[in-house]
Amino acid sequence: QVQLVESGGGLVQAGGSLRLSCAASVTVGTIFSINVMGWFRQDPGKQRERVAHMNSDGTTYYADSAKGRFTISINNTKNTENLQMTILKPEYTAVYYCNADQVQTMLRRYFVLWGQGTLVTVSS
Predict the structure, then answer these.
(1) Considering only CA atoms, which of 44, 23, 68 is closest in space to residue 119?
(2) How far is 68 from 107, CA to CA, in rounded Å?
């Protein structure tokens, strides 16, 4: 079974920066590859929204609100990803979820996996 574990959320003042991290691990065997890793956010009572993702070929996607402020990076060797968030605004307050899709392990391929979420609070 593949697990995604996030870290790095917390409280930050408007205009500040925060770095989220996510590590993928498997209980048995090894992760051979991950096709897509990304980040989503969710506000209470609303649907989860994509913030950014990176494909295995290095191409990236950023939501309009993230462009110019957030940077996604992935370490394919360690199966980790980071989301560097800068110039934060109060409206960026949400629970942020790590996401991985098409994770190939020794035993099988996994689709659409989620971390447990990490709360980011931006104070005004």
Answers:
(1) 44
(2) 39
Residues 94, 32: Cα–Cα separation, whole Å: 32
Query: What six digits make up the tokens of 41?
Result: 């956010």
Residue 104: half-sphere exposure toward Cβ, Cα within 13 Å: 7
Alpha-carbon distance 95 to 82, whole Å? 15
Quote the CA–CA distance of 65 and 8 in Å, as a whole number. Answer: 20
3-state helix, strand, coil in the chain (%, to 5): 0, 60, 35
pLDDT in tens, 42-71: 998 899 999 999 999 999 999 999 999 999
Give the C-alpha separation, 87 to 74, whole Å.
Answer: 21
- Summarised one tens digit per residue, pLDDT across range 68-90 is 999 999 999 999 999 999 999 99
Bridge partners, 60 (sequence order): 54
Tell me the sheet residues that pair with 51.
Answer: none
